[in-house]
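Lesson 9: reading folded outputs for more than one chain in a single document. The general rule is that every protein is listed as its sequence immediately followed by its structure tokens, and records are never interleaved. Here is the first one.
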Amino acid sequence: MQLRTIFTLCITLLLVSACNLGGSPEPDLPLDDGDSQSAGQPSVSILSPSTGDTFTVNEQILVSVSATDEIGVTRVQLFANGSLVKTVSSDLSNGEVSFEGVLDFTPRSDGDFTLRVIAFREAISSPPEEIEVTVGQPQVIVTERSDNTSGSPGSGSGVQVPIIPNDGVCRVLTLVGLNMRTQPTTTRNNVITTFQANTLLNVVARLGDNSWWKVSSGNTVGWVSGNPQFVSLSGNCTSIPIETVVLNTPTPSPTPIPTNPPAPINTPVPTAIPLPDLTVPSIAVDDPVTIPQSETEVTTEVTIVIRNNGNGRSGQFDVSLRVERNGFEDVVYDVATVGALDPLTNVTLTQDITFDAADEYDIRVDVDPDNDVEETGEFNNRADTTIEVVQAP
């Protein structure tokens, strides 16, 4: 009985083996590695700035980027000379198919910088996009002031070319003494005021051919010529709205010819009153600021330079310093009250600031914050810088 059972079992095993040896194997099935493997790499491009652009030490560089991916860009990173300086992540857990953002970097030394941007879909990275920029030390650039609208230099002391912020705002810098007019035409007497050379003005509108720019100076709005010999543009001016202007030119009435014309009257030309121009050319502070080991706070000194770039002596003015930290109430310091400042002279002030946490802080200095001093312009009375506070290990 046992022999029969064993024999039957052997026959069964032989039949199974034969079936396996004689049959065809199942075809290989495609492996599904997931969307992250089947999709290609993300792509990224730098919209601004451009290779060859120049900046100054402690001036914030804003890098505008655009990235795309079939599934979703989860983050974009900015590197400066190989070091990671900024990461911007998507608010969506799966990322964004089309991602646009701005990453900032503040150089603390001069030299040539390679700015590299890489987009990521989780751990999969895009080919890098790079530009080369140059960072230099802040310089006081002095030109001769133009006292007329023809562009020829006039006599007198020099004025400093203002530092143009890298914030994308469309501005014009006057290269000569330039008239602001009520309408974009020179065919009539419509001059509102005349700006000195090296005056920085915000643009609010333009003609369709960019031949005239509508600018603001304080509460005054008017038109200046867009001739490249007269003005220089900065910022993103393509988004400035186009304004249609209809020039209502009245037909002049014929002027009767007097039989006895009166003798010409020599009217004295009024002399312009010299005015000051208060600026903040420099904010100096250690970066990073280090909280000592086992300590909970640190106090550091900020050095501020105030300069009068105008041709008139200023009256008394205040200087304030504001410390801004994301998510916290600003701390304001009354730095000093300056009695007066002569033309083309500086005053150096210091202020101690206490930090009680490791974080990134924005430092803002305002000179004459209440506009007590009448100046040639109120657009350059503020300066900003950013510092990092770290905790010593």
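And here is the second record, again sequence then tokens.
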Amino acid sequence: MRRCYLTAYDIREPKRLRKVHKLMKGYGEAWQYSIFFCVLKDIDRVRMQSDLKELINQDEDQVLIIDLGQDETVARNAATVIGLQLPPQETGVLVI
């Protein structure tokens, strides 16, 4: 079963920041530079958390993972955007 998560981070060092951003692109959609919307199986959430723990400095950095529940439509609609809209949702369909 998949659940939706909003993951936000505050990384103090630019090199670590780039590494965390690159890692997070593999787990979800960037809604802002340091905020990702992720739809993950339980094992993938555990992997993401473990990968993040390895990259960050836990004395200087912070990662926030918010569980938005199972219903992706409800989770997406829970976000209110003021100003520039979120990027379009990726469909997961690749056309060659």
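What the second record shows: Strands lie at 2-10, 29-32, 35-41, 62-69.
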